TrEMBL record:
<keyword id="KW-0862">Zinc</keyword>
<dbReference type="GO" id="GO:0008270">
    <property type="term" value="F:zinc ion binding"/>
</dbReference>
<keyword id="KW-0479">Metal-binding</keyword>
<feature type="domain" description="MYND-type">
    <location>
        <begin position="257"/>
        <end position="306"/>
    </location>
</feature>
<protein>
    <recommendedName>
        <fullName>MYND-type domain-containing protein</fullName>
    </recommendedName>
</protein>
<dbReference type="Pfam" id="PF01753">
    <property type="entry name" value="zf-MYND"/>
</dbReference>
<keyword id="KW-0863">Zinc-finger</keyword>
<dbReference type="InterPro" id="IPR002893">
    <property type="entry name" value="Znf_MYND"/>
</dbReference>
Amino acid sequence: MASAIKDHTAVEKPKDLPPLLSKKFNITDVKQDALKWNKEWEAAIASSTAADVLKEISHFLDDSFFTPKDIELFHEDLRSVQDRVAEILRSLFNEGHFDTIWLLLNVAEKRRHILEGLKGASEAPTLWGQDCRALCPEVTVSNLLSQGGKGFIDFLTRVLEISESSIKPAFLPNSWWEQASNLPNPWNKFIDECFPLIEHHASHFVLSSALSIVGDITNRSEGMKGVLHIMENTEGYVARSLAQAKSTFRDKPLIRCENCTKTPEDIGQGVRFMVCSVCKTKLNFEVHYCSQSCQKQDWSLHKKACVKKPVSKGLRGTKGDSLWAFGDSDPAVELIRNLGKKEGRGLTSLRDIGVNPCKGKRSPAAERQAEMLEANRNVDYFLFTASGETVRFVIDDPGARMIFRINRGVIMTQTGDTGLDAMGEYMVKLMSGYPGLSRDIILKQLCEEHGADTTKQIVRLERKSRECGKSTFIEGWLKDSSNVFGDWAWLGSL
Ligand SMILES: [Zn+2]
Ligand SMILES: [Zn+2]
């Protein structure tokens, strides 16, 4: 009888599996070179099948190695780790800015945190240490860095959802698991024992990577400083929309069929796209087709430029689209694209960030401003002297111009009231000394256009900028954001 009573004070730890796969794949020691270690693991994961992995471990997964007691302990331990993970993720996501901070980090920093997570998971007291990686093809640096780091946020979100959906040890199915469940006997009888291996690894990965990020935020580490600066000095929506834009950047242009506009992924099944061979050889220019029939159908259009000029339709996301680096989901980019479309031409410069139709009701003064701006795309704003003469305000710096115009778009379409202060402060600073203009004249005009509250908003921002030692919000923001976005040189191509 006595032996059946569970001894809660004893320290019990399930047995460990010996390292099998890390040995088999000859993986470098993580302490020696973490990047190399990860690269070798990613290659091993990509080249091995679920059956390969199960073959290695199957004889450890039957009753001769683990007793039911071991398994029970293992499940208890897993659930307690999952509870901790859920608690941390909930608090991170409730803080509100976690995903924005993450997306704004530069890629080297993101990679470092993910590596910390993987290292932590491999060193954690799980049953199988780093060998668990072979069962978790989704938890890789390349996967989690996908879409500018959105892959990581999506993963955390799914982990949290699944942990909250059950009080039992939660299971997030992955592609390895799906492959393994479709294997014939005897392999598929072991997969139930594999789920704690997968989940333990995933949970410890989340714990370690989150700890690494939170540590950097708390200590204002070198790599985190620039991002925190933006978060503290920017209206939330600007930081959010920039983070969003960053996450949808493409690293290379898409290939689309010039006729049906489909991408190779749309068609699938390893389809080989063709190029117009004369354009390729004579102009070194590629016009893509998914099939001969598409090429035939498009000929009447393509023949006008074929061999003469490197001209394509500039389909969305392809090399010929000046905004190819941007993904599809960013509203600011959509705004720019649609503008180009409305005019019946592609966007060729920042001047095309116009003001768009108003969603609310503009004052008569703002209505006049919008009409003048639409008619004069080179001008960033029209100011008026006391005697009613028009002064064209034009910004040279491409970064400042973009921020100014995004703010302008929000205000003139009345889709939000933030950004008016930044726009006003910038014009007051740059234009007050202009012949015929003064601070008061500019403020009076802006109040007429955007409401009596405008001056108060601008003065408040001026005070804030002074306190932060900045000339204006827009200039300070550009300086800070260069840590995250580089020098805005990419805008030069617009
Ligand atoms: Zn086609
Ligand atoms: Zn051609």
